[in-house]
Each structure stands twice: as structure tokens, then as C-alpha cells.
Amino acid sequence: MANNRPIGVFDSGVGGLSVWREIVRQLPHESTIYVADSAHCPYGPRPAAEIVQFSTEISRFLLAQGAKMIVVACNTASAAALKHLRATFDVPFVGMEPAVKPAAQSTRSGHIGVLATEGTFRGELFNRTTETHARGVTVHRRVAHGLVSLVEGGNFSGAEAESLLRRHLSPLMAANVDRLVLGCTHYPFLLPLMREIVGGRITIIDPADAVAKQVQRVLTRRAAPTDGSARHKFFSTGADTASLEKLLAHIGYPRAEINRLWWRHAALDSAE
Ligand code: DGL
Fold first, then answer.
1. How far apart are CA 203 and CA 22, in angstroms?
2. Which of 52, 136, 183, 227 makes a 20 to 30 Å CA pair with 87?
3. What pLDDT, on a 0 to 100 scale, did the predictor assign at position 271?
4. What angle do CA 106, 126, 165 make, to 5 degrees?
């Protein structure tokens, strides 16, 4: 039976929009609610227990808004909280982990690079996948300090972005890496600049397409009717909604409906 309720999507900030836009592209009839937890961004350096708490409260909020499933569009939150969320709530969750498997299967040089946050590299999910699927391949892990705040600030190009990216990418190029996994949903917004820097030497893997396909598989009977009634709502816990506005305009949604959301006594409170 068709199901009009929205798909909930969240991230520590605006990065999850790299996944959100692919979901909307592949599933144009689905309504969505997106939460950017900009008040706590970045999640990367935070203790797992804290990320579990934030993710739980955001999921509770999305369910109160009627979400029929939740996409954790954040590698760091998936690493820390996905297991807990699935055990706590009675809706399907789709999470993320760095796409080590396709990189390891397709590398010719035997060297793959992974850019992610410290939280993601600490996670059991990443380490298990690497052990299972990257045997015989050298995995170069790099915590890409500074990239999340570039994207939150809407700096996708320019001298600062270029020099930071060169600092992260040069050692990988020197190590003969030929596949690079983007293990954080903020990084795909820097793809054009990354491609300029690495040229044809490295194939860069953005997992958004695979995640949207997984959403479609999980939806099955929960899919929305094809009546053109899809709506998209955005919430930010940040002091203002500027980052979200800027990024939505950048990806072609300049008139999106954006609301503020407050953390009160560790729970989320909507102004609506
Ligand atoms: N976008 C997030 C991820 O995919 C987290 C970035 C951060 O908040 O540190 O890991």
C-alpha cells in the first residue's frame, strides 16, 4: 500500500544533503524531512556516547514528525549509533559506511585511500569491512581535518579550500593510491576541486548513489504514491540557518522550507 509519510534524513550538519539530493533524484515522489544538527557539528571528534544521544533524540523528533524510515546520512553517526537506533526504534534505518569494498575490488595499484572523520575510523563497522573486503590491499586512512568546516561555511572553491585539499591529497597521490573513498558526507561538495587536483590519477568514490538505491530497496511497500505531492522540510539546530540555506541554494533548492530547532534539556524542541 502506498505510504505518504516522509523519509527522515539527518547529519551533523549540511553534509548529509549530498545523500539527500540523490534520494530525491532517484525517488522523486517521496517527501523528506532533513535535520542538520549544526549546533553539535562536527561529530567527528566527539565521544561515541554523545553521538548516540544526539542521534537518538533526532530520530525521536523525526518519528514524531511522521517519518516512515530514517536515513543516517552521516558516516560518523552510523559508526557510533546505528546499532543502538535499530535496537531502540521500530522503523527501518539506512546507515552509511565508507565504500571500502568497491574501492578494494577495483584498485589496480593495490593502494586505496579513505578520507573520513576520527569517529568513523574508530567504528567497528569500518574496521570489520576493511578486514573482510580489503585483504591484500593497502588502505591509507586519513582524517581530513578542516574539510567539514569548509563545507559548513559554503567554501567549495577558492585558495583556502584548494590548499587544504592539496595537503590531504598529496600524500595519497605520493603513495600511489588509485581509488579514493569519500567516507564523510560533507566531502562530495568538494568533488570538483578534488578532481582538479588529482586529475585522472585517482577515481573518487561517493557512496550517495548506493545509499539511495538501498533506500529504494528498503522502502518496498512503504513507497509513496506517484501523485506529485512530495514535500521537503528542513530543520537546523544551529544558531541560524545560513549554512543550510547556502548549501540548498548551491544544489538548486533556493526556496526550501527551513526551520530552526532547539536542544532543550538534551531533547529537541520545534518552534512550529
Ligand atoms: N558528515 C559526517 C560524516 O559523514 C560527519 C562530519 C562531522 O560532523 O564530523 O561523517
1. 19
2. 183
3. 55
4. 70
Cis status of the peptide bond prior to 42, with omega within 30 of 0: yes
The answer to whether the CB of 184 is under 6 A from ligand 1 is yes
CA of 89 to the centre of ligand 1 (A): 22
193-226 per-position pLDDT tens digit: 999 999 999 999 999 999 999 999 999 878 877 7
Fold of 7-96+209-270: Rossmann fold (3.40.50)
Cα separations (Å) of 256 from 14, 32, 134, 234?
14, 12, 41, 8
pLDDT band (50, 70, 90) for residue 272:
low
Q: Answer yes or no: pTM beyond 0.90.
A: yes
Task: Give the three-class secondary structure for 47.
Answer: coil
Catalytic annotation, residues:
74, 184
Q: Is the pLDDT of residue 1 over 70?
A: no
CATH 3.40.50.1860 in the chain, residue ranges = 7-96+209-270, 100-206
Residue 41 CA to ligand 1 centre (angstroms):
8
| Contact by Cβ (8 Å): 175, 199 | no
Ligand 1 pocket residue status of 18, Cβ below 6 Å = no
Report the alpha-carbon distance of residue 8 to residue 75 in Å, rounded: 16
Query: Can you tell me the distance from the alpha carbon of 100 to that of 135, in angstroms, rounded to the nearest whole number?
Result: 11
